[in-house]
Amino acid sequence: MTKLHEEIDLHEYKDAFVLVPRVTHATSTSFLSPTLVISRTSDEIYLDASVVEKRGPPKNSILTYGIFGFIQLQACNYLAIVTERMFLGYVKGEAVYRVAKMNLLPYHPNPSKVLSDKKKKYEKKFVSVVESLLNDRFFYFSYSYNLSVPLHLQRRRDPAIPKEALHVDFDKRFFWNRRITKPLRKLQLHPWVLPVMRGYVHVSMFIVEGLSFDFCLLSRRSKYRAGTRYLTRGVDERGHVANYVETEQILGFNGEWSSFIQTRGSIPLYWGQTSTSFKYRPSAHLTHSLGETGAAFQQHFERELDKHKKQLIVNLLDRKGDERKLSEAFESFVSNHANPSISYVAFDFHAFCKNDEFENVGLLVEKVADRLAGIGFYKEGRNGEAEQLQDGCIRTNCLDCLDRTNLVQSTFAMKSLMMQFHMFNIFEIDRFDVLERGFKEAWANNGDAISLQYAGTSALKGDFTRYETHCCSYRGSLPGHTKPFN
């Protein structure tokens, strides 16, 4: 696979940005490209090995860890670069980072000079908004591991065939800077294209009673229909839904690896929330005809089935009020679609877990236990070959796909983790609480991260995920139930 430049010296000249790759321990001069020149006076981008010697000392120099992309505002183009990164750990031996800081460099030496007084104010605001988004702590990247695809797809290519550049195989749904790296991709400047994912990544290693475990949690947030809560709901004409997130839980032990994938996403119908008064929660309602909604619904699940083969829908909406209307409409479309690869379970979370009785999620787990076992998880042996494939995917939703959804997904994930431990032939660990604490912390942080991106606030039920004992914990069993589940 084409190596990416990990450390780059960016030199600013009046008419150009000149980027010179550094030789690091992970690189060698055998594959290094010549210096990259980005003109500040035209759209020209080219390679020139001797440009630095020709130009002399630059106006300014910056160490950068990658090009995020090219962004056009009113005054001129801006070059977005990663200037600080945070090392998170290794996924299967490959380093993973979070973007810690980005800078916007204007092509024009003084952008305000080319604008009217009115537009100057707007330009300043636009730059502030873009910089705020770029520096919100939720962008992730790796120079050598494809964060956009699940573990089982990392090995799809024949090892005998040379791999393409990292960005070529990057899933477009999670390639957030794809459009703004087009000038580099068009010229096939592969070592300069750094694909960046948005969502959440947790990487850790646990050593318990002499046993070492690698634990990773990767949430990939789709760039399609990626607006905010209340303003962006439901499905669009291409079948993309609001707040769509694919979450993969990876466990490594003794050279073997396993992963478990779940998804969340807004109800795949045309619906929205509007209000003529100041209400805490505006009323929800369907917005399009049955025909239009049916077509978008079908597109959504065709894509999901293409990716995951089977779908178990877990709907957590209330059975009263506006949520009931949405829930019944969703159930009706699933029923009319009549696809044997799609199954559906409704669980009124607020009814079963009222008064903070969140342990009653165990009722749901008990209800779908056989199907969860049937879906299973992916397993990879020490030789890198697949020994078991995940057969389907659980798609969970509530209204926002935040608090309720994250708590339920973490419970399914714990259940899967227990199955993975049995698969690794690990049946008794006296100090399993060490790993369990790390698991709960990761899932609670995951809930906060997704909630902050969609709603602007941390998850409201994060404390239960973070501190309370799961109904499916290592030693725990499902609690005794007196409430029927229909």
State the gist of this model.
The protein has 11 helices and 20 strands.
How is the topology of this model organized?
Blueprint: E1 8-12, E2 16-21, E3 36-39, E4 45-47, H1 51-55, E5 60-64, E6 67-72, E7 77-91, E8 94-106, H2 117-134, E9 139-141, H3 182-186, E10 197-208, E11 211-221, E12 245-253, E13 256-264, E14 271-274, E15 283-286, H4 290-308, E16 311-315, H5 321-337, E17 342-346, H6 349-352, H7 361-367, H8 369-375, E18 378-380, E19 386-388, E20 393-397, H9 403-423, H10 433-454, H11 462-467
Parallel strand pairs: 13-20, 16-17, 16-20
Antiparallel strand pairs: 1-2, 1-5, 2-3, 3-4, 6-7, 7-8, 8-9, 9-10, 10-11, 11-12, 12-13, 13-18, 14-15, 18-19
Helix pairs in contact: 9-10
